[in-house]
Design goal:
single chain, alpha+beta
């Protein structure tokens, strides 16, 4: 099978503990791997109504002074739906196939998603998939370190937080005036200024997506209204603008950074992340400018990235952040 190039987005996160710790996340994870050396010992079971989802940390390697790993998501016994396209048929054949065994003694499972990560101290680099996001990696690490190995107390909780981009060095993060966001309620539409308009900047609208009408229905229901009585139908969805704004109108909080981090961490997990921060001096920054991320090119085989190639690029990205001073305190 030939090797090909594949592009992936990598994000910087920082491990934050609920209570002060004498050990970094990297040291705790490495101790956990020594305590549970086999993947079967590291399975996290997540029971849902429709099936039982499992997560497991499989491959892990030392990469320089860091620790790289791959987290997998799968559902035991799941079959893959297949379809046979036929240009001459009035209906295509649909069926299910079981995953092929990798050896005579080894039963295999279809993988729903995988996430690559690299940990150095409390610095964490992640490359997510649609089924596995950074917040789910945090859930897994909490289960591994708290319940399976008892390396942290039962009341301890680890989060993987966004770290403010170095772009704020010049504009001043402490002067945040408001946060506006339309996700997960709406899509962003940019409207260019009219040719005869004096305004040179395009206008941004947050237009409600039809698939997200459920959120509006729930909000209206809280006031005893439904869509018809409110004058809305699902056909109107593309013409409805939904924006939520959190604004400081009086005395500025002493430390709005915590508030901004909380907002950023929620929306950073959404692939269609879109929000913006307005500073006291009028400067507006988009959500994409609040996080530290990069697009890297890695080697893949059969469409699956090679772990070592991903870890190597993550290591380069992390070194660059430390070198250019992006990791401001």
């Amino acid at each position: 099978m030939s090797t090909e190039s594949k592009r992936r987005v990598v994000y910087y996160k920082r491990a934050v503990f609920l209570t002060p710790q004498t050990k970094t996340l990297q040291l705790l994870v490495e101790e956990g791997l020594k305590t549970l050396p086999k993947p079967a010992q590291r399975i996290q079971k997540i029971t849902r109504e429709e099936d039982e989802v499992r997560r497991v940390l499989n491959e892990h390697r030392k990469v320089g002074n860091a620790r790289g790993g791959v987290l997998y998501r799968y559902s035991p016994g799941q079959q893959q739906v297949v379809m046979a396209p036929d240009a001459n048929a009035t209906e295509w054949s649909v069926g299910q196939v079981e995953s092929p065994n990798l050896s005579e003694k080894q039963k295999s499972e279809f993988v729903d998603g995988l996430l690559f990560f690299l940990i150095f101290g409390n610095d964490v680099i992640v490359s997510q998939s649609a089924s596995l996001r950074a917040n789910q990696l945090a859930e897994y690490l909490n289960d591994l370190l708290q319940k399976k190995t008892n390396l942290v107390g039962e009341n301890e909780f680890i989060t993987l937080a966004d770290h403010t981009s170095g772009k704020f060095k010049d504009v001043g993060l402490a002067k945040v005036r408001s946060v506006r966001f339309g996700v997960p309620l709406s899509d962003v539409v940019t409207i260019p200024p009219a040719p005869d308009s004096r305004k040179s900047k395009p206008k941004t609208k947050h237009v409600l997506n039809a698939k997200r009408m459920g959120a509006i229905e729930a909000a209206l229901a809280a006031f005893g209204l439904d869509l018809p009585s409110a004058g809305l139908t699902h056909d109107d969805a593309e013409s409805v603008e939904a924006t939520l704004e959190l604004r400081v109108t009086g005395h500025m909080p002493e430390d709005p950074n915590d508030f901004l981090d909380a907002v950023g961490n929620v929306f950073a997990e959404h692939p269609d992340q879109d929000f913006e921060v307005e500073l006291a001096n009028g400067t507006t920054l988009r959500g994409s400018e609040l996080t530290l991320k990069s697009t890297v090119t890695v080697e893949s085989q059969g469409g699956i990235p090679k772990p070592h190639s991903v870890w190597t690029e993550m290591h380069k990205f992390l070194l660059g952040l430390h070198k250019d001073g992006s990791l401001i305190s």
